[in-house]
Write a structure and sequence with these properties.
Blueprint: E1 5-9, E2 12-16, E3 30-34, E4 41-45, E5 58-60, E6 76-81, H1 83-95, E7 100-105, H2 115-124, E8 129-133, H3 152-172, E9 177-180, H4 198-208, E10 213-216, E11 232-234, E12 249-251, H5 276-293
Length: 294
């Protein structure tokens, strides 16, 4: 299954249809963000051979709200994800300068697409921690055994196996691994079973093997009672009308109900307005990761 994508990059609309085309074993296209003392930039485009990102258009990060200055002495966190990981990782990169964030993410990808890149980054970039946030997409060749849509059982089995492989690589590099949940999905957008419930079990199994693997339930930051999907939540203390707080409530989901940018209809590479949902999940990641690296 191939989908169309409209990615909004700071007001610049990049349309890619089909979503992307990769062959088995090739690197997916992605957005890569790397912290530095210079203004935040994002690069987009199809990857070349190997884990390196290609030259691509460079755009300035959103000016509202202005990101804090990066601290180049902060510990480096390598984060990998799909469209939701891209939104949350961008907020982590832009709004939490106590961490240097190297974000590798692209809409529609699966964890298996990034196994080679993670292995290469552990050897070359040598991050202080690895964060993975994937929803279990099955659009790319590595997630479609035999070129067909996997069953729910096959999808979960591969997800578990891929998480175990990342845990093995991270452990070999002496790096802690953090597994991040996704926020609640609304009906009828939850077309496939949510794999987030797998994560705490996987983390527990890996820890029993002596591996430094932690489950972070960042998705709970956007949940209502009984982990229900909510389009809006009470405003944070410093969220005013200038960032969308109205009558004490603020939108935390996109118009498609699945993603997070309140001004978008779905997938965005960078939200041009304040994304309270992305910020809240990023804050949970920061709270879980940073104390471990102090």
């Amino acid at each position: 299954m191939v989908m169309s994508l409209v990615a909004v990059l700071v007001g610049v609309v990049v349309v890619a249809s089909p979503l992307f085309e990769t062959s088995a074993g090739s690197s997916p296209p992605e957005v890569v963000l790397a912290s530095s003392a210079a203004p935040t930039t994002a690069t987009t485009g199809p990857a070349t051979t190997g884990p390196a990102a290609v030259e691509a258009a460079t755009v300035e990060a959103p000016a509202v709200p202005p990101p804090p200055a990066s601290d180049v002495s902060a510990p480096l966190v390598a984060m990998y994800g799909d469209s939701l990981g891209l939104e949350v990782g961008t907020a982590l990169h832009d709004q939490f300068p106590e961490l240097q964030v190297r974000l590798s993410a692209w809409p529609g990808v699966a964890l298996c697409d990034y196994l080679g890149r993670i292995e290469a980054d552990l050897a070359t970039v040598r991050p202080a921690a690895v964060v993975v946030m994937f929803t279990g997409n099955t659009f790319t060749p590595c997630a479609r055994p035999g070129g067909r849509e996997p069953t729910d059982v096959e999808r979960e089995a591969q997800f578990r196996a891929d998480l175990d492989r990342v845990a093995t690589m991270a452990t070999g590099a002496g790096v802690p691994l953090f597994l991040v949940s996704q926020p609640p999905l609304p009906y009828p957008f939850a077309l496939q079973p949510d794999l987030s419930p797998v994560l705490p079990e996987v983390a527990a199994v890996e820890r029993a093997r002596g591996r430094d693997v932690t489950y972070l339930d960042a998705g709970a930051a956007l949940a209502g009672p009984d982990r229900a999907w909510e389009p809006e939540l009470p405003c944070l203390a410093d969220e005013g009308a200038d960032v969308g707080c109205q009558d004490g409530m603020i939108r935390v989901r996109a118009n498609d109900g699945r993603h997070l940018c309140p001004s978008s209809d779905g997938v965005t590479a960078s939200c041009p307005v304040w994304s309270s949902g992305a910020f809240r999940m990023a804050a949970e990641i920061d709270a879980g990761v940073r104390p471990r690296l102090a």
